[in-house]
Amino acid sequence: MRIWIRNAIIITMEDGDTPFNGDITIEGDRITGLYREEDVHQHQLSSQQFDRMIDANHMIAMPGLINAHQHSPMNLLKAFSDDLKLMDWLEQKMFPAEARMTAEDIYWGSKMSMAEMIRSGTTTFADMYIHMNDIATAVEETGMRASLTRGLVFIDDQAQQRLVEAVDLVEKWHHAADGRITTMFGPHSPYLCPPEQLRHVIELAEQYKRPIHIHLGETKEEVAIMRERYNQTPTQYLHELGLFENAHILLAHGVHLNTEDIHALTGMRGGVSHNPVSNLKLGCGIAPVTELQRNGITVGLGTDGAGSATTLDMFAGIKTATWLQKLHYGDPTVLPAYKAVQMATLDSARLLNIDHETGSLQVGKKADVILIDLDKPHVQPVHEPVSLLAYAVQGSDVHTTIVNGQILMDNRELVTMDEQLVLAEGKQRAKRIVEGV
To answer: Do 150 and 8 share a structural domain?
Structure first.
């Protein structure tokens, strides 16, 4: 499909670029042109050359948002167990409810998440869960881009079966769905992965040349457990086992990191997904985002699952991330608007190891583009477009969502899924899953 986006405020999120008025052309799955307003006429574009022309007057065109850490089927558990302490939330609510989920539940729950993400401008997400074949099928059908990971825990007799499923996911789905799906290996966390098993996962990642996605330092309890078992911080434990030597690593959370931990992460391939809404809501703490960035460690942005975060709106995450750092330091200059938005786009792409393909608007990159409607009181007037993105825009302001050159949402209407069917299935299944828990 050939698409011509006209008259937009274009924000590329490439380092050094500033917003400009102009046009974007898309052919197939790639961006073929970024034209400044004053230069458009020189290229002799005409509507006959394109299958679709979108008038983006009063809109921002920007890269699609990239959710660097998600558990998409947990949308079925949204607002089911709020305002509880973390271990009570997990043991009394999440674990019993998740134990009731079937593969079909997970398929429909992930589709509900995808509907919410597409509607709020997320074009790519990193997911860790079970029944990943069903989630991959949903990704293939909806047209989103995703990095998929089979979560691995080694605390019962199902550990070997989980490893088999993890390898199957990598072999079956990596670069599937027209290249939109990539895969990682997913040891859940240091406290659920003893040394021998974690070394084996590291070896598998090296064998298949795939990244590793793992939770790290989300809670004080995790740090205490690792101190008691190994007399190490979770980061020291992973570092000593060689996790950071060769593989590209996506670390989820990174809330409880001390100075030595941050030093151990310096120079790593990959980086940390900051999940501020979930961390705040569960009372986990404030991640040292500014220290990580000052040490050259890439920090992207994620929501975590809707079971904890309740919302998958990445614009809420952008606001929360920058406000938290400003408050923590008592300094309004910390984590400025541009960097906060870049965390949700190009930096998250770097975490997923796909920044050569997406995360910014650039000729030759994949056509993952969203349009933000500014013709609303809460985003007017337009003095600094990037500041509006960071501090005022909401997910409901997204007008159009394009992934791989395919329109997934057109003027707030989902194109690639039956939204009413997805909602009906999700509501019915969610009610059954939580009943009596």
So the answer is: no
Distance CA 269, CA 101 (A): 35
Domain count for the chain: 2
Burial class (CB in 10 A: 0-12, 13-18, 19+), 48: exposed
Does pTM top 0.85 for this prediction? yes
Q: Which domain holds residue 397?
A: 2-63+365-412
253 DSSP assignment: E
The verdict on 392 and 371 lying in the same domain is yes
What is the full per-residue pLDDT of the chain (437 aa) written as tens digits? 999 999 999 999 998 899 999 999 999 999 999 999 988 888 888 888 999 999 999 999 999 999 999 999 999 999 998 898 877 888 899 989 999 999 999 999 999 999 999 999 999 999 999 999 999 999 999 999 999 999 999 988 899 999 999 999 999 999 999 999 999 999 999 999 999 999 999 999 999 999 999 999 999 999 999 999 999 999 999 999 999 999 999 999 999 999 999 999 999 999 999 999 999 999 999 999 999 999 999 999 999 999 999 999 999 999 999 999 999 999 999 999 999 999 999 999 999 999 999 999 999 999 999 999 999 999 999 999 999 999 999 999 999 999 999 999 999 999 999 999 999 999 999 999 999 88
Query: What angle, 0 to 180 degrees and rounded to 10, lies between the N-to-C axes of helices 195-208 and 159-173?
Result: 10
| Statement to judge: residues 71 and 137 lie in one domain | yes
Q: Is the residue at 428 inside a domain?
A: no
Give the position of tokens 């606001």.
319
Determine how many CB atoms are found less than 10 A away from the CB of residue 162. 18
**Domain match, 197 and 294 both:** yes
